[in-house]
Amino acid sequence: MNTNSYFSQYGKDFQEKIFQCLLNDHRWAGQMHEVMTHEYFELRYLKYLCMRYFEYHDKYKTFPTMSLLVTMIKDELREGNDIILRDQIIEYLQRAKLNPNPGDLDYVKEKSLDFCKKQAIKAALEEAVTLVASETYDPIISIMKEAISLGNSDTVGHDFFEDFEARFQKISRVTCPTGIAHLDKKEILNGGLARGEIGVIVAPTGVGKSHFLVHLGAEAIKIGKNVLHYTFELSESAVGIRYDSHLCNIPSNEVIANKQKIKQKYEESEFGRMIIKEYPTGSASVMTIRNHIEKLSMKGFTPSVIMIDYADIMRSTRQYDSLRHELKLIYEELRNLAGEINVPIWTASQSNKEGSEKDVVGLTNMGESYGKAQVADVVLTLSRKETEKSTGLARLFVAKNRAGRDGLLFPVKIDTSKSDIRVVEDLGELSIADAVQSSNKNTRSLLKSKWKEITGE
Fold first, then answer.
1. Which residues does 13 contact at the CB level (< 8 Å), separation at least 6?
2. Is omega for the bond preceding 310 within 30 degrees of 0, making it cis?
3. Does the pLDDT of residue 206 top 70, yes or no?
4. What is the per-residue pLDDT for 369?
5. CA atoms within 13 A on the CB side of 228
6. Which residues have CB under 8 Å from 388's CB, separation 6+?
7. I need a surface site. Which of 169, 260, 346, 396 has the fewest CB within 10 A?
8. What CA–CA distance (Å, rounded) separates 162 from 180?
9. Torsion of CA 157, 333, 405, 364, to 10 degrees
10. What average pLDDT does this structure show over 55-83?
11. At what angle do helices 286-298 and 323-341 cross, to 10 degrees?
């Protein structure tokens, strides 16, 4: 068997995608580690990367991030060692970073894993033949059982004492900021919503869910992120005007009259890219979105963050008699999609009728299905009474947060003319205990009293 060219039959592009899959999908990398070695690669720089990648895992029981791998390579292959190999590796990793989802990765993973598993079985058969020739029969069954089981699962679990080092490796959590400093700080979202996570904005009708999603998308564009925004109620141009108003600080009803000013703003700015895609209400499923993302990938667009306005009016891939079960499935499918494409997803959800009457909307006020809250990584709620709309004041509540603290309430100002949400800075953050209605004052009077303390008004 020619062990030096197992992957040579697939070509350079396929081999590079194999290692890119190892970088992007650590679960799959664990399966591959059981059935392949770095010698399977034909290309020298991929052999070296794979060897160091698996060696790091063997030592620390976790796979290195791309940035850590780059640091390791630069340190090991300093000037005087192997500059050509170092430059080949750095050039490849830079290309992989610029194009994290080159397409066909699922096919590459399936094909290469199947190939490696077959090689493991062939090797076991060769060993069995040798044992038969020497009339040593007892080990044959266990050898074949082990070969067949290799690559079927990534791990047997976290061995608490043996895998001690893995718990103390720095976890790479790549985030997309919300643009709201109070939420992005370390003890709360720790930088924003991370890749593979799903965040939900919950509010009664007319409070500002869609505007909040535009705010999040616009703030991402400002720092060079690529935004993919799905709309199921508004037209693509209507959503685009909302982005224009936020990015250019112009009221939405004045956007058309300021066409040249807006165009000049974009020409002078280094914003990220944005795609706005409209689907009729109830027509798009998670499969529809997945197919659209793959189509965009082939055209060179890879999203950094996805906005879905909103998940409650999507179509599930399976019909249930109960709406709550159907909604929970939609959110589960979105959560799986976020993990599969390694991108954060923000969406919105309607609160129930009781939520419109509350000073603070909580998890129990998520319309139709509490199961949506169980799936989400972050749940933020917006609440304001009809009498408060003219002032723009509202309350932003961190109802659920797997990344850090929750149960925090922030007074915010919602400017729907510019899809802008900002915390009323001087009031700071309020705990839920301070903010909910008590025997002597409700939320509104509390905010008024704190504002008076600060401004004297």
1. none
2. yes
3. yes
4. 64
5. 19
6. 394, 444
7. 260
8. 41
9. -120
10. 79
11. 20
Structure tokens at 330: 């939609």
What is the arithmetic mean of pLDDT over 164-191? Answer: 83
8 Å CB contact between 122 and 1: yes
- The Cα 50–Cα 40 span in angstroms is 10
Mean pLDDT of 152-159: 63
Rounded distance, CA 180 to CA 68, Å?
Answer: 29
Strand-strand pairing, 378-383 and 345-350: unpaired
Helices (H) and strands (E) in the chain, counts: 16, 12
* Single-letter amino acid code for the residue at 23: L
Residue 79 banded pLDDT, cuts 50, 70, 90: low
Could you tell me which residue, 165 or 81, shows the higher pLDDT? 165
398-419 pLDDT, tens digit per residue, is 999 998 999 999 989 999 999 9
Burial degree of 135 (CB within 10 A; 0-12, 13-18, 19+): exposed
Q: Which of 449, 421, 456 is nearest to 211 (CA)?
A: 421
Contact partners, residue 89, CB within 8 Å, separation at least 6: 45, 48, 49, 73, 77
Say how far apart CA 272 and CA 256 lie, in whole Å: 22
3-state secondary structure 77-105: CCCCCCHHHHHHHHHHHHHHHHCCCCCCH
Which residues, other chains included, contact 316 with Cβ-Cβ below 8 Å and sequence gap of 6+? 285, 326, 327, 329, 330, 333
| The pLDDT value given to residue 363 | 85
Number of neighbouring beta carbons within 10 Å of residue 221: 22
pLDDT score, position 167: 67
The pLDDT confidence band at residue 387, using thresholds 50, 70 and 90, is confident
Specify the DSSP element, H or E, that contains 395: strand 393-401
Beta strands in 76-205 (DSSP E): 175-176, 193-194, 198-203
Q: 38 near 45, Cβ under 8 Å?
A: no
Q: What are 28's two structure tokens?
A: 């799959």
Gap between the Cα atoms of 121 and 309, Å rounded:
49
Q: Name the phi and psi angles at 310, rounded to 5.
A: -145, 165
Span 433-447, pLDDT tens digits? 444 443 334 455 555
What's the average model confidence in pLDDT over 204-222? 95
Mean pLDDT, range 350-369, rounded to an integer: 79
Calpha distance 93→104 (Å, rounded): 18
Residue 117: partners with Cβ closer than 8 Å, 6 or more residues away = 35, 150, 151
